[in-house]
Amino acid sequence: MWNYTDKVKEHFFNPKNSGVLETANAVGEVGSITCGDALRLMLKVDPDTQIIQDAKFQTFGCGSAIASSSALTEMIIGKTVDEALTLTNRDIAEYLGGLPPEKMHCSVMGAEALRAAIANYKGEEWVDDHEEGELICKCFGVDAAMIERAVTVNGLTSLEEVTHYTKAGGSCQTCHEKIEEVLEAVMARTGALKPAAKHTPGTVGLDAIKPLPAKPEPAAAPKLTNVQRMQAIMGAIEEMRPQIQRDGGDVELVDIDGKDIYVRLTGACSGCSQSAGTMMGVQMKLVEALGEFVRVKPASLMPAHAG
Amino acid sequence: MTIPNTALPNRGVYLDNNATTRVDPDVLAEMLPLFTEHFGNPSSMHAFGAAVGGKIEWARKQVQALLGAAHDSEIIFTSGGTESDNTAILSIIEAYPKKREIVTSVVEHPAVLALCDYLEKKRDYKIHRIPVDNKGNLDIDAYRAALSDQVAIVSIMWANNETGTIFPIEELAQMAKAVGAVFHTDAVQAVGKIPMKLADSAVDMLSLSGHKLHAPKGIGALYVKRGLRFRPMLRGGHQERSRRAGTENAPAIVGLGAAAHLALTHMGEENTRVKAQRDRLEQAILAAVPACFVTGNPDNRLPNTCNIAFEYIEGEAILLLLNEQGIAASSGSACTSGSLEPSHVMRAMGVPYTAAHGATRFSLSRDTTDAEIDHVIAVVPDIIARLRSLSPYWEQDAAKPKEFAPVYS
Fold first, then answer.
1. A100 neighbourhood in chain B, CB within 8 Å
2. Chain-wide mean pLDDT for chain B?
3. For residue B265, which of A140, B313, B330, B382 sits 20 to 30 Å off, Cα-Cα?
4. Residue B172: pLDDT above 80?
5. CA B323/CA B35 separation, integer angstroms
6. Nearest CA-CA distance, residue A212 and chain B, Å
7. How close B125 gets to chain A, by Cα (Å)?
8. Burial, B47: exposed, middle or buried (Cβ in 10 Å; 0-12, 13-18, 19+)?
């Protein structure tokens, strides 16, 4: 659900000046049913004073498209044509207490319909330079078309540059992957994405020179503390459990006494003829994990005092 | 602690069950002890863990029963439909690295489509997206033509989320099997509404989502037929037999188990009472509103779903006015998603733009009452008429569309 302001809701649920204006002497029509929004703005302009005496609209579109249209008519009635022309889409959005970034295009449609209607009144032909793409940066309302333009016109090559030129990706930074996709697509088209220069055999380009790898530390056998050793044993046994559980059994660590590791086999393992083999498997795993020799013994063989 | 609470209606008419469902009170009751006394980690050796482990295995058996699977070990619990879909596809292409093609349909959920787009763009996979006809039926000839021994996996949904249209999954799975391709189906909308017996089926993998069947959000499952090559997406601990690492979401898993059990019990009701309510709603709207039609295939669809395209008006505006009347529905309109194109499903069926933007989905559940349907039938015609009175494409007095061709398209 969009977070519409009360003002947007007011103009959507009870739109002002909707319907056909029979006495209109200026009509502006923009949008298309393909885009999902279209607006017909009808004005009645007094030829002597150039004042917009009445305005009505018909809108095919979402809640904010209808609210923007309604707001627009309220804003221009009583203004002269030239005063009305100073209105921008931002003014419409502000009048409505703001629009979600995805919906700013609704206010753009309102501003365009106004210009189209006034051009119609003046007998001019209105040319639309409307261009819109997928919304990329929600924080600053930047769409793909705007990023493409900025990249093409300014020859941008990096995400940082795109942010400098368009602000896209400068706030929450979650759209960076999408910005890079647009950037790559444009660069691939314009040929800016050339493969790295190849060097002739025997020569070395500066970019191929890399710092020498740091000298590896001598691999001194690490001496485990008692706690680390215990954790290594527990970890190794934990790793083996799924395999043993798959056969319906389980293994549990009971005690560690120097080189002697006491475990208990449970479930299907207890009394199983293969249990000795399982014990050997656990022992091999522990020897491998600890890098030292240990003996794995059943808990039943624990000395009485070990409890 | 305060959580923002945007005024929720005390009681509304909820007809958006394909988006999500209410957690059944019985499901919640099964879950609650898992937060309090049975909080243990099922991997632990002590009694706290063991109690939870047993409940998870109970839940697994319920899901097994709902799907008619041969073994409970074929069920892997995941975080939901999207994870299941992603796991299925990524697992199979990793298991069969030499096969470089994937077959899917144009009307899949983004969980499949966006991943396929990514694999096409970044990993050079060849993606066959099978088209549908104007009723949303899959083009079987195109499907047959796309199948070959180069195909690693076929991923085709069981039923469409927007129109409810059902695909002939068994037939499609058999055809995939014949060329040695793994067959996966996103059955998120179908599970619980269509009886299934995967034990006797050629379906290799199936995704389901808990919150579409009265379990909570954040839980789902992936069915993987025994013996199928599988590579986990999440690696780590041994949970889910090392096929999906990470401590089990025990309360949600138990919730899904309880929901699966209830879904099996209520399957008949979905296909009788709920279906009758859906039909009554649909017929009443079609009779009362001019210039609207049902999208998808009305003769072969989910019993709870009805998608009506209202021409010459826009879906979000419809939803906002329905919401004023306490009715929750959803739309294939571009404006509800913030994109410029209407739903890819509507476009794939060739629904004209004049209608695609006004496509409105009503999806019922076993919670839906006759009184609720009466309310919707009572208010929809006025809502549509009111918006058409604002539309430049509609001639109000003549109650018919009119010519309108604005400057740009």
1. 338
2. 93
3. B330
4. yes
5. 34
6. 32
7. 18
8. exposed
Structure tokens at A281: 């498997």
Q: Is residue B108 within 8 Å of B156, Cβ to Cβ?
A: yes
Model ipTM? 0.82
Whether A75 and A183 share a structural domain: no
State the CATH number of the domain containing residue A169.
1.10.10.1100
Pairing of strands B151-155, B101-105: parallel
Please check whether residue B207 is in contact with residue B88, taking contact to mean a CB–CB distance below 8 angstroms.
Answer: yes
Residues forming a β-bridge with A281: none
In A, minimum Cα distance to B316 occurs at: A62
Length of chain B: 409
Structural class in CATH, domain B25-263: alpha beta
pLDDT tens digit string along A110-119? 998 999 999 9
Give the contacts of B306 (CB within 8 A, at least 6 positions apart).
B164, B278, B281, B282, B294, B361, B362, B363, B364
Backbone angles phi, psi at B9, to 5 degrees: -65, 145
Place of tokens 């009751």: B29
> Residue A209 has what pLDDT?
44
If one counts every other C-beta atom within 10 angstroms of the C-beta of residue A4, the result is 21
User: Encoding tokens for residue B288?
Assistant: 């009362």
- As for how many domains chain A has, the answer is 3
Q: Under an 8 A CB cutoff, do B314 and A60 touch?
A: yes
Q: Which of B118, B136, B132, B173 is nearest to B151 (CA)?
A: B173
Quick: pLDDT tens for B329-376. Answer: 999 776 666 566 789 999 999 999 889 999 999 999 999 999 999 999
What mean pLDDT do residues B223-252 have? Answer: 96
